[in-house]
Amino acid sequence: MSTEHCATSPTLVHLWSYRLTFLLSGMALGAWAPLVPFARDRAGIEEAELGLLLLCFGLGSLLAMPLAGWLTTRNGCRFVALLGGLLICSMLPLLASLSSFTGLALALALFGAGLGSIDVAMNVQGLIVEQDHGRPLMSGFHGLFSLGGITSAVLMSLMLWGGLSPLPAVCVVVAIIAGLLLWHARHLLPHGADDPSAPFARPSTRVLVIGLLCFVALLVEGAMLDWSAVFLNTAHHVDTSIAGGAYAVFSLTMAAGRFCGDYLRARFGAVQVLIAGGVLVLIGFLMAVLLEPWPVFLFGFALIGIGLSNTFPVYCSVVGAQTAMPAGLAIATITAIGYTGILLGPALIGFAAHLLGLRVALLGVGALMLAQVLSARRMASE
């Protein structure tokens, strides 16, 4: 761990600047979601081609994250956050206007690279600030990421519903993101978490295992995003126009759980937070998948959101505290491995649903959270 940042404690202004980075990253992701059907229609593509297009986002993120970890160590969090922000703000207008499949694929890959870069920078910066404060802060940071995603998705939807076309609507969000990022950039950390002269270190076994646990957590999150509405429509016969409410319930409770996560971790410790979270996710899946009354299965989705909310923030703090490899590279490693859960999750769940049925496939996804419960004491002891 670099000692450069240990001499002074961040002021309240600096702390809010660090929080804004998470908020703006979430806003960027939330702005893209309402643009997907418009991009599909402009390009004139079917669902299979749309799946390939969306794959470019994940690939761009995955390829950028290891480089972002290295750049954060060499050039600092501020540099990587601004670089990621530049890519995001440049690509969003193109994603709202391009009509060729190739152009959209390239823009989406660069957008994913920008978002992946700023994600690594903000998590490394969050780790440094958390360790300087000597108390848990990471869950609250990620709560602002969730809040940013919800805010920009709602703002975009309202502008589009009000008759604004996609390009000017997304330019409003881009102006907010760029303006806030430039305004608070001077307060971001100009260094990373590690000594820039330290040699490259291969991921330790513990970091790789935590990366796989993040893969499971983000696989569950991807299942909620891509399959919850489909499941409610096919299994519970909920109308498609309101089936998406399950994901809204999941998202809102996930954000709420993150805002409570720092207190819970300080009160009970990382191990207990992970064990309780994994158990809640398991119970939530059982309720959402097996029980019929709508208040009960919606409560199941709420439990999944609460249970999953603090998994990734806690694991970021845990790998930041280990000494087997540089903290910045460790965070980049678990982020990249974890993101493959969202990248591969829809296809894996679809394949399992084809063989076993969607109900069994989703129960299987929930059962994977047992790995978090059983490994918590070994992986997350502080």
Structure description:
This protein has 16 helices and no strands. By secondary structure, the chain is mainly alpha-helical. It has helices spanning 12-32, 36-43, 47-75, 77-95, 101-133, 138-161, 166-184, 205-235, 240-243, 245-268, 270-290, 294-308, 311-321, 327-356, 358-367, 370-379. It starts with 11 loop residues before the first helix and ends with a helix. The protein has 2 domains: 12-187, Growth Hormone, Chain: A (Up-down Bundle); 205-379, Up-down Bundle (Growth Hormone, Chain: A). Mean pLDDT is 86; it is low at 1-8. Helix 4 runs antiparallel to helix 5, helix 8 (205-235) packs antiparallel against helix 15 and helix 10 (245-268) packs antiparallel against helix 11. Helix content is 81%, strand content 0%.
Distance between the termini: 17 Å
**Helix and strand sequence:** HHHHHHHHHHHHHHHH
The total number of structural domains is 2
Structural class: mainly alpha
How can the largest sheet be summarized? none
Please state roughly what percent of the residues sit in beta strands, choosing from under 5%, 5-15%, 15-25%, 25-35%, 35-45% or over 45%: under 5%
Average pLDDT confidence is: 86
pLDDT < 50 runs, ≥5 residues: 1-8
Number of strands: 0
H/I helix tally: 16
Radius of gyration, in angstroms, nearest whole number: 20 Å
Q: Give the helix proportion (percent range).
A: over 70%
CATH architecture of the largest domain: Up-down Bundle
- Tell me the name of the CATH class of the largest domain: Mainly Alpha
CATH topology of the largest domain: Growth Hormone, Chain: A
Q: Overall 3D geometry?
A: globular
Mind telling me the CATH superfamily name of the largest domain? MFS general substrate transporter like domains
